[in-house]
Amino acid sequence: MEKLFHLKKHGTNIRTEIIAGLTTFLTMAYIIFLNPTVIGKSNPDLANLPGTMEDTAVITATCIGAAIGTWLIGWLSNYPLAQAPGLGLNAIFAYTLCLGFGLSAKAALAAVFLGGIAFILLTVTGARTAIVKAIPYSLKKAISAGIGLFIAIIGFTNSGIVIGQSQGAPTAVDLASFTDPKVILALVGLIIMTILVIQKVKAGIFIGMILTAALGCLCQFVFGIDMGVTAPTSWVPMLDFSMFGQCFVGFGELFSAPLASLLAVLVTLLLVDMFDTIGTLIGAADKAGYLDENGNLPKIERAMLADAIATSVGAIFGTSTVSTYVEATSGIAAGGRTGLTSTVTGICFVLALFLSPIVGLVPSAATAPVLIVVGIMMCSSLKDIEWDNLEVAFPCFFTVVGMPFFWSITDGLAFGFISYVIVKVARGKFKEIHPLMYLIVGLFVLMYVLSGLQALKIL
To answer: Could you tell me which residues are beta bridge partners of residue 40?
Structure first.
């Protein structure tokens, strides 16, 4: 293990890495059961469309895609990161590709496969690395804080502490009622984790999560209080390879689509995945202390190559675009510092195919507080931003608040980058703008234009 992952060099050990890997898995295991509700037959919008994927096939592909992507990013870069079919990216698969453009699941998988190939080419040619280096240092720090707020709001909503308001209400969100036992359990878990982390207890986040889950099981199974725990009902492995290789069957349908629609599909997939991954990598790396003095991440091309390969492999098995997960920061906060953390997380995804009922014993009320605590930690990068310099403050502000407000890393980056160029141009500081930033902003504008045309049924 020392030879493979250089544990001593990174100030860690096998026990810490295993705990970190388990922590990462438990905070992102929800995607195993959530992905079928987005791109499978559990999604009522897709259920009646011909060729919709079976839920068991989606679960199998999700676990395999997550395992392969997580292993690759850990082994290629030795960073404690994790990958799985991305949230938001799976929604694009379902609502933009299948429902919006009318593609079958096979054709949509073909588009995802091509996207993965394009990512591989962009990575090996150094284009994606060049894009990362073109992002100003202040924006990189804003990305880290923005992702912190983003995963914190995910934690608040997953726990039920924060709820959405009905249409026409004066506010977009509201504080939940404390009569819900699941909300109370999440608050108790948040208190436990806060105390353990502040007291600098080793593996405090993981211990807090397990204690909260144990309390939830006790209340539900002994006292009959619904805590959101899913009791094991079957030990039948969820193995369904019916979608394996079907993406190749979908090429004929994909390329028979109008050229403008095909362009819109590929541009959307490329931009969203590219900047979701870039944003997540920068945010997680900053939390782990891997960014250099210029805010760049060593070996970033290896990390990005992992998600590119995993995207194509995931499409072959039958799932949407694979991307780096912000939840990996929970494992980093638990002490994970090397690819051994990723190795453990990947093993857990494989075991989930056979032991998925156990995953249900850890309710969202136990994992959601982890995201809130990690979000607090990631906001420390705000101190590195020159808030008294408005040229810096404006784009950084849009980046930081855009991610949680728009519920999208990509949209937060888009607003931040576009405002950065506008501010610099307004000040006549053209030379301070890296040429690639003009290209990035132009692509973002193109993405929004294509999205608008598709919504108007023009494409």
So the answer is: 53
Buried b (16+ CB within 10 A) or exposed e, 36-53: bbbbbbbbeebeebebbb
134 neighbors 123 (Cβ within 8 angstroms): no
How does pLDDT run across 367-381, given as a tens digit for each residue?
Answer: 888 888 888 888 888
Position with higher pLDDT, 453 vs 155:
155
For tokens 């990958």, name the residue: 83
**Residue 423 is assigned to a structural domain of this protein:** no
Mean pLDDT, the chain, integer: 87
Residue 411 inside a domain? The answer is no
Amino acid at 417: F
Closest among 18, 37, 79 to 277, alpha carbons compared: 79
- Tally the domains of the chain: 1
Range of the domain at 181: 2-137+151-378
* Domain membership flag for residue 419: no
SS3 labels along the chain: CHHHHCCCCCCCCHHHHHHHHHHHHHHHCHHHHHHHHHHECCCCCCCCCCCCECHHHHHHHHHHHHHHHHHHHHHHHCCCCCEEECCCHHHHHHHHHHHHCCCCHHHHHHHHHHHHHHHHHHHHCCHHHHHHHHCCHHHHHHHHHHHHHHHHHHHHHHHCCEEECCCCCCCCEEECCCCCHHHHHHHHHHHHHHHHHHCCCCCHHHHHHHHHHHHHHHHHHCCCCCCCCCCCCCCCCCCCCCCCCHHHHCHHHHHCCCHHHHHHHHHHHHHHHHHHHHHHHHHHHHHHCCCCCCCCCCCHHHHHHHHHHHHHHHHHHCCCCEEECCCHHHHHHCCCCCHHHHHHHHHHHHHHHHHHHHHCCCCHHHHHHHHHHHHHHHHHHHHHCCCCCHHHHHHHHHHHHHHHHHCCHHHHHHHHHHHHHHHHHHCCCHHHCCHHHHHHHHHHHHHHHHHHHHHCCCC
Average pLDDT over residues 152-157: 86
Rounded CA-CA distance 270/247 in Å is 17
Is 446 within the bounds of a domain?
no
Mean pLDDT of 264-268: 72
CB 211 within 8 A of CB 370: no
**Rounded-to-integer distance, Cα 347 and Cα 395, Å:** 40
Could you give the dihedral angle defined by the CA atoms of residues 411, 377, 72 and 77, in that order, rounded to the nearest 10 degrees? 110
Partner residues linked to 278 by β-bridges: none
Can you tell me the distance from the alpha carbon of 374 to that of 37, in angstroms, rounded to the nearest whole number? 27
Q: How far apart are the first and last CA of the chain?
A: 53
- Stretch 6-14: mean pLDDT, rounded? 93
Written as six digits, the tokens of 212 are 């909260």
